[in-house]
Write a structure and sequence with these properties.
heterodimer, A: alpha+beta, Immunoglobulin-like, 6-stranded mixed beta sheet, 4-stranded antiparallel beta sheet, 7 helices, 10 strands, B: mainly alpha, Rna Polymerase Sigma Factor, Chain: A, Arc Repressor Mutant, subunit A, 68% helix, globular, disordered N terminus
């Protein structure tokens, strides 16, 4: 967006400038300055609305895309389908829990709600309270962390398509984990710390690869669970999804632990939403079907980045 | 890819209701469209894959807001996709896209490709008819701008056209497409002004 002299609203020059900006908005986007100028010009007329050429640009782009058709890679397709499972489950859960104790912030402007072709911001679901718990946990891991969410805000929700991370064949998983660390240059390895009072003796680590959105959890002495009664569930705090005070953790799936001779248990996992900048991992104990938003009444372990050395 | 009305309810409506089969159908019908847009506008395959994931997250979140009376699903999804891709390009400082701009700027005429475009949404069919009537230079400007995400300045550099001509081609082309869409919708969109009044 180059410098441009402000026009008088209603003048032929301003009409021309308005068209230029609308075309630029639809073609390559506007910077903040250009958008502000467009907003000002739109306010002074009634012929055009915001994004007036968006449909036209999309229609033309479809024509060009049709001449360039290539199938989407299978792994990408699967990741997109996985994200649908998580998001749609979360949205259903939020809808179901609306009349209950949770208050969802409906801050979306009416103009945006009325524009079906306009992407909306990520839903907010009381994540401020959730994130407060995570922040507190990161700040004082060695003490009893503050509640992730007040117990009075208990959310009785079930994902539409809960998934369970498969933990059979532990010897194979151990070698898979080792190979995973060796072959993924960007992996991080963070150690588990106690989060809930009953899990003082649990140790181990979580391995995470931001490139593939996958990882492995390794536990020592994490008690076995009865899947008919309860299951462990992994949560991933992603700072890239917004400020930690706004966005609830990403569901990393449920998993079961069985008794083993050496007390060790390895769990592979995939985040079914892209995680941009991981802040921490937490494991809670939930019902057999898992939850979309944990009330944190049963916390197990937590992992965040180790303190900077030196 | 297709965008016509469906007798069994729209794919997006069923996606919004949590129908897993509809999610897969949505990927089958529109995955190629989004992938094509991302590959052309992003600088590399890795970034394109990231962008596609973000786009479909937006699609899933907004599926319930799709209104078939306002347009096809393909255009709804393409609009979300282009918005996301443009945002990414701006954040990246408009690094060059993966496409070889010189080839696109001076390669074979796009007219035959436009004629060959397959199954299209109603809006895209209208756009194709408009594009087919345009001159080759104007077609190419629109292709580089709307499909490859190139700035008018870059298009001018690549094609050798004066910047003012590039801007005029882009503007006139979009206005004509908008008028064609408006006619198809029976004037539901904003009343378009006569081309002679708005053309540069």
């Amino acid at each position: 967006m180059s410098d441009h002299t402000p026009q008088n609203p209603g003048s032929p020059e301003s009409a021309e400038r308005l068209l230029d900006l609308l075309v630029e908005q639809a073609s390559t986007g506007l910077d903040d300055r250009g958008q502000a100028e467009l907003d000002q010009l739109l306010a002074g007329q009634s012929d055009f609305a915001q994004d007036a050429f968006a449909d036209s640009a999309s229609a033309a782009a479809q024509v060009f895309a049709a001449t360039d058709a290539q199938p989407m890679p299978a792994h990408l397709r699967e990741r997109c389908i996985g994200s649908a499972r998580a998001i749609i489950g979360q949205q259903h859960a939020e809808t179901q829990s609306k009349p209950a104790t949770l208050k969802f912030e409906q801050s979306q402007p009416q103009a945006q709600a009325d524009a079906p072709f306009q992407a909306q911001a990520a839903p907010r679901s009381g994540g401020g309270w959730l994130a407060m718990g995570w922040l507190a946990a990161a700040a004082c891991l060695t003490v009893a962390v503050l509640g992730w969410m007040p117990s009075s805000r208990n959310v009785e929700v079930v994902p539409a398509e809960p998934w369970i991370n498969v933990t059979s064949n532990q010897p194979r998983l151990e070698s898979d984990r080792d190979l995973f660390i060796r072959t993924h240059a960007e992996v991080i390895v963070w150690e588990w710390s106690q989060w809930g009072d009953e899990y003082a003796g649990v140790t181990g680590d979580v391995v995470w690869d931001p490139e593939t959105n996958k990882g492995y959890m390794r536990f020592d002495n994490l008690p076995a669970n009865d899947p008919k009664v309860s299951r462990y569930q992994l949560w991933i705090v992603d700072q890239a999804r917004g400020t930690p005070l706004q966005v609830p953790p990403v569901d990393g799936g449920m998993f079961d632990v069985e008794a083993s001779e050496d007390g060790q248990w390895i769990v592979p996992f995939t985040a079914h939403l892209p995680v941009g900048e991981v802040f921490g991992f937490g494991v809670t104990v939930e019902g057999p079907d898992g939850v979309v938003v944990s009330d944190q009444t049963a916390k197990a372990v937590i992992a965040t980045a180790p303190p900077e050395q030196g | 890819m297709s965008g016509g009305a469906r007798q069994d309810g729209s794919v997006l409506e069923r996606v919004a209701m949590g129908d897993q089969a509809a999610v897969e159908q949505c990927m089958d019908e529109f995955g190629g469209l989004v992938w094509s847009l991302a590959r052309q506008m992003m600088p590399d395959v890795h970034t394109a894959e990231d962008a596609v994931q973000d786009i479909f997250i937006d699609v899933w979140k907004n599926a319930a807001r799709y209104d078939s009376s306002l347009g096809s699903e393909a255009t709804f999804i393409a609009t979300i996709a282009r918005r996301r891709l443009i945002d990414r390009l701006r954040k990246m400082g408009r690094r060059p896209s993966g496409v070889q701009l010189d080839d696109s700027a001076h390669g074979p005429a796009v007219a035959s490709a436009i004629d060959d475009a397959g199954n299209l949404s109603e809006e895209a069919q209208a756009a194709r008819e408009v594009l087919a009537e345009l001159g080759e230079a104007q077609q190419r400007v629109l292709q580089l701008s709307l499909f490859h995400g190139q700035t008018h300045e870059r298009i001018a550099d690549a094609t050798g056209l004066p910047l003012g001509t590039v801007k005029t081609h882009a503007r006139r082309g979009l206005i004509k497409i908008r008028e064609a869409l408006s006619k198809r919708k029976g004037g539901k969109q904003d009343a378009s002004r006569p081309s002679s009044e708005v053309s540069a």
